[in-house]
Amino acid sequence: MAVYVHDPQFMTRRGAVLVVIIALHVFIAWALATGLARRALEVIAPPIQTDIVEEVKTEKEPPPPPPPEFEKPPVEVPPPDVTIDMPVEPAQTTAITAVAATPHPPAPPRPSTRTAPKLGRGFPNTEDYYPAASKRLGEEGTPTLHVCIGANGKLTAPPTITQSSGSARLDEGAINLAKAGAGHYVAGTEDGKPVDGCFDFRIKFQMTK
Predict the structure, then answer these.
(1) Which residues, including other chains, have CB under 8 Å from residue 166's CB and lie 6 or more apart?
(2) Helices 8-34 and 36-44: angle between axes, nearest 10 degrees
(3) Domain residues of the chain, as ranges?
(4) Helices (H), 35-158
(5) What predicted TM-score, i.e. pTM, was given to this entire model?
(6) pLDDT in tens, 90-146
(7) Rounded Cα distance, 196 and 151, in Å
(8) What does the mean pLDDT of the chain come to?
(9) Which residues of 84-123 are buried (b: 16+ CB within 10 A; e: fewer)?
(10) Distance, first Cα to last Cα, the chain
(11) Nearest to 148 by CA among 197, 185, 186
(12) What is the fold of 114-202?
C-alpha cells in the first residue's frame, strides 16, 4: 500500500500559481474597467483604418466613329457620241474600172429665129377685086383678114375677116382677093426653114379720081 507523502514545497508553488492567476484576472477586469486594455490594444495593434476604395471601372472604349461621308459629286452623263460615217475613199488601184458618166442637164434651147408669113410677088391687085356696086355707091373701107399659110406658101384654111370694113360687099371682095393670092404668099420661117404660120393683113378699098 502506497503512502502519499505531502510535499510542502509543492503546495507553495501551487498557491503561487493560483495567486498569479487570480491577480491576472483582477488586472484584466481593472484594465477593462479603466480602458487601459483598449489603449494597450491600440498601441499593440493600431486601429484598422478602413479606406473606401472606389472600384475603378474600366470603361469600354467607344467604337471608332464611322468614316466621314463625303458628298458625292453629281454624276454628269456625257452627251452621246455622234458618229458620222464619212465616205471611204476607194483605194487607188491600177486596175481599169468602168466609171459611169455623170449625166449633165441638157443645154437650154437657143432662142429660135422666127419670121411671120407675108405677101409675095405677083399678089393680085386690090382694084381688080373692088366690087362694082361699091364703086357705083362710092363705098370705101379697109377690112382686116386673117390667113394661114403652109410651108409650101399655100393657104391651109379659108381666109376670115377679123375686122370688118362696115360693108359686106367690101368684106366679100377682100376674102376673094385673099383666096386669089394663093401661091403668092411667102411662108414664115424658123431658124431659116419654112414653117406653117398665120398672119393678119389689111386690104384698102378706096375710090380713085
Answers:
(1) 141
(2) 90
(3) 8-42, 114-202
(4) 36-44, 132-137
(5) 0.47
(6) 555 555 555 555 676 777 777 778 899 999 899 999 999 999 999 999 999 999 999
(7) 5
(8) 78
(9) eeeeeeeeeeeeeeeeeeeeeeeeeeeeeeeeebebeeeb
(10) 244
(11) 197
(12) TolA/TonB C-terminal domain (3.30.2420)
Confidence band of 57 (pLDDT split at 50, 70, 90): low
Closest CA to 154 of 190, 181, 177, 126: 181
H-helix segments, 102-167: 132-137
> CB neighbours of 176 closer than 8 A, spacing ≥ 6?
129
Predicted confidence band of residue 26 (pLDDT cuts 50, 70, 90): confident
3-class SS string, 42-74 = HHHCCCCCCCCCCCCCCCCCCCCCCCCCCCCCC
CB count, 10 Å around CB of 129? 20
Which three cell numbers mark 138? 362710092
- Residue 171: phi, psi to the nearest 5? -65, -40
Please state the rounded mean pLDDT for residues 40-57. 57
Position of cell 472600384?
A: 55
In this structure, are residues 126 and 208 in contact, taking their beta carbons and an 8 Å threshold?
no
Phi-psi region of 153 (alpha: psi -120 to 50; beta: other; left: phi over 0): left
